[in-house]
Amino acid sequence: MYAHCALSARGAVWIARNDKAQQFRIIPLQSTVGSALMRYYALDPDDPASWIYVENGYAYSSLDPFIRVGRRLGGAWKWLGILGLLPGPVLDAVYRVIARRRYRTFGSADLCALPDAEV
Q: What is the pLDDT of residue 37?
């Protein structure tokens, strides 16, 4: 699988390393399943700023996934919930800024080439 964004690829590795209960499944949006999930939730699979976190049949995007993943991982990661104090439009604006600059700042990466077999 190829995760075009290095930030997304590193995020996937971070989740896998901290997911001791193995409760998360990471699927690149560029894969057949990832693209199908995006279309199912009425999102553009070709939009490089898109990503989703699906929980209980509901898809979350923007910075909401970080908050939810942090809560599920527990421990120190639950503090990501502090982001939830920001209004939704602010979270979305921050995410859009990061998404626009992520290739320039973090580059691109092949998820399979990362040295973590768990991912």
A: 92
Question: Could you tell me the pTM of the whole model?
Answer: 0.72
Phi, psi of 54, rounded to the nearest 5 degrees: -105, 130
For 63, half-sphere exposure in the C-beta direction (CA atoms, 13 angstrom radius) is 19
Strand-pair partners of 108: 5
Please give the Cα distance from 19 to 73 (Å, whole number).
6
> What ranges in 1-119 are assigned the alpha helix state H?
6-18, 32-40, 64-73, 88-106
8 Å CB contact between 23 and 32: no
Could you report the average pLDDT of every consecutive run of 10 residues in the chain (119 residues)?
A: 62 86 86 90 81 90 87 88 90 84 65 50
3-state DSSP of 23-48? CCCCCCCCCHHHHHHHHHCCCCCCCC
State the DSSP code for 50: -
Q: What is the dihedral of CA 9, 12, 17, 22, to 10 degrees?
A: -150
